[in-house]
Write a structure and sequence with these properties.
13% strand; two-stranded antiparallel sheet; 2 domains; binds zinc ion; TIM Barrel; alpha/beta; 313 residues; 12 helices
């Protein structure tokens, strides 16, 4: 009886001192966040570490934007808060004359670039968009992210068209070799294009998700190493070949030093929580310029005015 009374007294004392509050508060927070995570198991492994975003923002991959790279750390504004953004993220592969799902003829590409220019769109880089998502830096009023996969030779012609218009793109290339050779890729990098990783050998059959851990590590980590050796770039972003990823691939990608990754479909709404599986939009070669315009418009929101999330029309 005495022991019990003593126990009650101690408990009351603890509550008065506020310790009980803290214990109760932390357990409520823990159960609350667990409940929030439950419906989306992949999110648990993704997390939203601001530190990583800060690293990504301070040390942008590729060679540009030079203005961001040169800016001293002390002059950068403090982190605000993660925010979603909706922007056109266009995915291209080849640029041969025969229009197809993965081939866009150069005259068609030219029309698309002219459409983007005349409608006020400006090309941005992955470090810019990721920094923006994590509350740092600014984006032009109408940002567009142009991506090209596979390091195909025909991309040279597309790059020429982009340069003529003062536009840039992100190239996802393989560490194990591409149609574009290293000298060509170095020149492309020199021209201000961003070069990121598309793994070592572009595994599709089987895809990344079916590889052994050792092989997966080779694909993810070695491609970064080779791109650094050959091109002097620190590839911080990854495009999954065939868009194949799962929680294990994401975990391994983070371990290998990536701060973000892109899938192959899904539109233009990017959120900090899915930064290892941000969507893109395939631009088919048989798209009319009118349909292209509709596609781009459907993925456009006003970034500065939607801090809580992009507007999806
Ligand atoms: Zn590919």
């Amino acid at each position: 009886m005495v022991v019990r009374r003593l126990y009650v007294l101690v408990l009351v004392a603890l509550l008065v001192m506020g310790i009980g509050d803290r214990v109760a508060g932390s357990s409520a927070a823990a159960s609350g966040s667990a409940a929030a995570r439950r419906p989306r198991p992949l999110m648990r492994s993704l997390g939203t570490s601001l530190q990583e975003a800060e690293v990504a923002a301070r040390y942008p991959a590729g060679v540009f934007p030079r203005s961001v790279a040169r800016e001293p750390a002390s002059s950068q504004p403090p982190l605000v808060r993660p925010r979603a953004i909706t922007l056109p993220v266009l995915m291209y592969h080849g640029f041969t004359s025969l229009a197809g799902e993965y081939e866009v003829p150069i005259p068609v590409f030219r029309e698309q670039l002219d459409w983007l220019k005349s409608h006020g769109y400006r090309t941005v880089t992955l470090p810019q968009v990721y920094a923006y998502m994590f509350g740092r830096g600014r984006l032009p009023r109408k940002p567009v992210l142009i991506t090209m996969d596979d390091g195909r030779l025909s991309q040279l012609a597309a790059i020429r068209e982009l340069r003529k218009r003062g536009m840039r793109a992100v190239l996802f290339v393989m560490g194990g070799g591409n149609q574009l050779d290293w000298a060509q890729l170095r020149k492309i990098k020199y021209w201000g294009f961003e070069i990121e990783s598309h793994t070592m050998t572009h595994p599709l059959h089987p895809p990344l998700t079916k590889l052994s851990s050792a092989r997966l590590w080779y694909e993810l980590y070695n491609s970064r190493r080779v791109l650094r050796q050959r091109l002097g770039v620190s590839a911080r972003y990854l495009a999954y070949p065939g868009g194949a990823y799962d929680a294990r691939v994401v975990r391994m990608a983070r371990k290998a030093g990536y701060v973000g990754a892109l899938g192959s479909w899904g539109g233009g709404r990017w959120t900090p929580a899915q930064r290892f599986s941000e969507p893109r939009m395939l631009v088919r070669g048989d798209l009319s310029v009118r349909a292209f315009g509709q596609l781009v418009r459907s993925m456009t929101s006003k970034p500065a005015e939607s801090p809580g999330g992009g507007i999806n029309p």
